[in-house]
């Protein structure tokens, strides 16, 4: 599980890529960012191309801030939870036994 400690501006994680404490301002390659998202680089490239996640180019490489990856993951989690809550409310309203 990962979480941000906003008072110190560090990202504390224990996922595949980042173990330990990493500054939120750290920049990642698309390969590293995709690993954190649990997605392919091609999927991440689509997110970058569409503007859903900000990046900057250095030569021919794209760098993504860890903070932006974390924010994207948090927003997707929030949206998933919202949809699940709505589904549960609908199920209760229609007496579906959930």
Beta-strand content bin: 15-25%
Can you summarize the main beta sheet?
3 strands, antiparallel
In whole angstroms, how far apart are the ends?
28 Å
Morphology call: elongated
CATH architecture field: Orthogonal Bundle
The gyration radius over C-alpha positions equals 17 Å
Give me the number of helical elements: 3
Indicate the CATH topology: Arc Repressor Mutant, subunit A
Q: Given this structure, which CATH class is correct?
A: Mainly Alpha
Q: How would you write the strand order of the largest sheet?
A: 1-2-3
Low-confidence parts: 1-8
Oligomer: single chain
* Pattern of helices and strands: EEEEHHEEH
Mean pLDDT: 83
Number of strands: 6
Number of domains: 1
Which structural category do the helix and sheet elements fall into? Answer: alpha+beta
Give an account of the 3D structure.
The chain has a single domain (3-73), classed as Arc Repressor Mutant, subunit A (Orthogonal Bundle). It is 47% helix and 24% strand. It has three helices and six strands, in the order ββββααββα. The strands form two sheets. It has a three-stranded antiparallel beta sheet with strand order 1-2-3, with helices on one face. A hairpin with a 4-residue loop joins strand 2 (10-14) and strand 3 (19-23). It is elongated, with a radius of gyration of 17 Å. The protein starts with a strand and ends in a 5-residue tail after the last helix. The model is unreliable at 1-8 (pLDDT under 50).
């Amino acid at each position: 599980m990962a979480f941000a400690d906003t008072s110190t501006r560090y990202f504390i994680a224990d996922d595949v890529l980042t173990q330990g404490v990493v500054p939120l301002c750290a920049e990642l390659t698309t390969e590293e960012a995709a690993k954190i998202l649990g997605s392919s680089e091609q999927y991440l490239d689509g997110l970058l191309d569409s503007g859903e996640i900000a990046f900057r180019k250095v030569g021919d490489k794209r760098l993504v801030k860890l903070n932006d990856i974390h924010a994207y993951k948090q927003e997707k989690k929030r949206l998933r939870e919202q949809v699940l809550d709505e589904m549960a409310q609908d199920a209760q309203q229609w007496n579906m036994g959930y």
